[in-house]
């Protein structure tokens, strides 16, 4: 009997360690802990996934920092400059793309986009690798921009439209800033990843002026808006005030109350919409 108990205990322990290591891997794999590319606060009114206005047919594919024209921009991660371009009055305007690889994803390329700049540093050369924190140039309002800001975008796995990821999941993390972070997934009643929904209830730190709500939309062609579903989650809300938080999904369709601690990433149990 004792032998049997020992056997089962050992088996349980192995399972526990396995589950723990899986959880740790998926957690750590997502945590690049990148610094902000610019000292300016995030534009709370137009977060990743938000529609620009009610007639927009797709969501915002990056993060906007409210940087006045002429603010210094620095690379967030080591990598090779693959584009140093100027699209004139269209799209990204003056922009730089840096390709990099992260130790957690040795076979996966990351593409960091720094857009709408007013000036690209003359010392930056294409096909040259630079360390994190390299001066890239000055922020501006070039290209398709309604005001001065830095549009920062991350693509993962491929350098195309559908490979965009929410930079919030890669930038400054709760483990360093005394804020809390929540991550999780919202599913439809049929079990697929929910789109075009708003999540509210978390309060962001005022020092960075994030918005308090989050939205996901579908693209005009019906394809899912790029998100973090590859990692088993489809929302990520960082730098929020700790405490008991009631998240509200899709204007009250569901709520879930979680305890968010400072310097901790809390995984919220999955929510299925009615
Ligand atoms: Zn933007």
UniProtKB/TrEMBL annotation:
Domain M23ase beta-sheet core: residue ranges: 59-157
Lineage: superkingdom: Bacteria
Keyword Signal: yes
Signal peptide annotation: 1-28
Keyword Transmembrane appears in the UniProt entry: no
Pfam families reported for this sequence: Peptidase_M23 (PF01551)
Key words, A-Z: Signal
One Gene Ontology MF term: metalloendopeptidase activity
Protein name: Peptidase M23
Record organism: Desulfitobacterium hafniense (strain DSM 10664 / DCB-2)
């Amino acid at each position: 009997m004792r032998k049997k108990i020992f056997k089962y205990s050992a088996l349980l322990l192995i399972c526990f360690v396995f589950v723990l290591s899986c959880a740790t891997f998926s957690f750590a794999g997502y945590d690049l802990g990148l610094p902000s590319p610019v000292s300016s606060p995030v534009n709370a009114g137009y977060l990743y996934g938000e529609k620009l206005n009610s007639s927009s047919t797709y969501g915002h594919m990056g993060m906007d920092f409210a940087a006045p024209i002429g603010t210094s921009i620095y690379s967030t991660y080591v990598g090779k400059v693959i584009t140093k371009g100027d699209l004139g009055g269209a799209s990204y305007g003056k922009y730089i793309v840096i390709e990099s690889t992260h130790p957690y994803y040795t076979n996966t390329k990351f593409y960091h986009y720094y857009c709408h700049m007013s000036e690209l540093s003359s010392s930056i050369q294409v096909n040259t690798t630079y360390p994190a924190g390299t001066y890239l140039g000055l922020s501006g309002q070039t290209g398709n921009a309604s005001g001065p800001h830095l549009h920062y975008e991350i693509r993962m796995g491929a350098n195309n439209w559908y490979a965009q990821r929410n930079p919030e999941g890669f930038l400054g993390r709760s483990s360093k800033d005394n804020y809390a972070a929540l991550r999780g997934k919202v599913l439809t009643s049929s079990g697929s990843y929910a789109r075009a929904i708003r999540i509210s209830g978390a309060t962001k730190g005022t020092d960075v002026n994030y918005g308090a709500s989050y939205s996901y939309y579908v693209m005009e062609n019906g394809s899912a808006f790029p998100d973090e579903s590859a990692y088993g989650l489809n929302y990520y809300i960082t730098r929020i005030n700790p405490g008991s938080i009631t998240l509200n999904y899709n204007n009250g369709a569901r709520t879930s109350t979680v305890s968010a601690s400072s310097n901790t990433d809390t995984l919220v149990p999955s929510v299925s919409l009615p």
